Known about the structure:
Elements: H1 10-26, E1 38-39, E2 42-43, E3 50-53, E4 60-66, E5 73-81, E6 94-97, E7 102-104, H2 107-115, E8 122-125, H3 134-141, E9 146-147, H4 156-161, E10 166-169, H5 178-185, E11 190-192, H6 201-205, H7 208-215, H8 218-242, E12 247-251, E13 259-261, H9 267-274, E14 277-279, E15 290-292, H10 294-303, E16 306-308, H11 315-321, H12 329-332, E17 336-338, H13 359-370, E18 386-387
Amino acid sequence: MHPKVCPQERQMKRYIAIAVAAAILLAGCSEQKGKENLYDGGAVEYARYFTIENADSTIKKIIITDLWSGGESTQTYKLVPRESYGGFRTDPYALPYPVERAVCMSTSHVAYLNALGKTGIIKGVSGTRFIYDSTARALAREEKIKDIGTESLPNYELIMSLNPDIVFAYGISGADNTYISKLRELGMKVMVIGDYLENHPLGRMECIKMFGLLTGETERADSIYTHVRDEYLSLKNRIAEKGAEKIKVLINSPYNGLWYIPGGDNYMSLLIEDAGGTILGSRKGETKSSIAGIETVYRYALEAEIWLNPGDMSLETLKSTNPLFAEIPSMAKRQVYNNSKRRTPAGGSDFWERGAVEPHIILKDLSIILHPELRMADSDTLKYHYRLR
């Protein structure tokens, strides 16, 4: 999730709902317990909401923290080799691996599988028009990937006809998640993944290890994770070593009359902090988003050097939403950026798709925006962000 405030199409609204739910949930969650669960390529380092056990045994286990069905509990999924799977078919939490046929309820699931070279196993996606990846889009056009409806109104008959080994799903606290239990009642194997709950950018990316285990691409998943982790930390350290002053950032814009400001330990806040910035009004030590009034935000706006993620629109359109916006320094200097440079005609954003496995590239984007004087090369360009005009 995500502090994702962008009043656009269904994909954006989905992420906004997840963002708000995650912010509330994470406010009361405990810190990382420090337990290292062995994984074929090393420990689970940054992720807080999944662990892997028995990675070297025949039947492996993925344990996911459930924060969406009321309270905090864990769910253990057993990964059973396909040749031994017959005796486990009636167990709703026993999954055959390597997975050969999958349905994805989120485009971030598509991104994890795509990064592992496993786009071909995807047989259905919730909202194919929101997919940015060209390979998956082509398969959808050829109807090799079916649009299986939304989480609120899935096409159960179509999902069953696809005969998936697994449905990758997600749940939101306080929302109607009955589609998950309904799929299980129909005999589908469902894994509910909380990648959006991971606040640390590397923790969210680390979810690729689950997908690697399920698809038989453990070594590849670990290699990708290690590369991204090292690139991210290297850039973060280079920025810190320069000792440049933190750039003051105004973030988001009103959504349904409310202005959400992510807490200091939130996904977006951590990215901006690591890129050499600080979000005005962000509460240190908190993951949840706070709600600020327009007068308070206007005071922040007068201090801000950069405005990030107000929405996918022109400067003129942004000004028209509130006359006060025309007077703030970031608007006058045209230092306003949004994270939807890579988007589909329907409103799908690759920031929330491929960006899940490329936090190092997002960090690079933000470092270019916040500290252009620290650019490593003239060839450095923005991948996920663009300047509003």
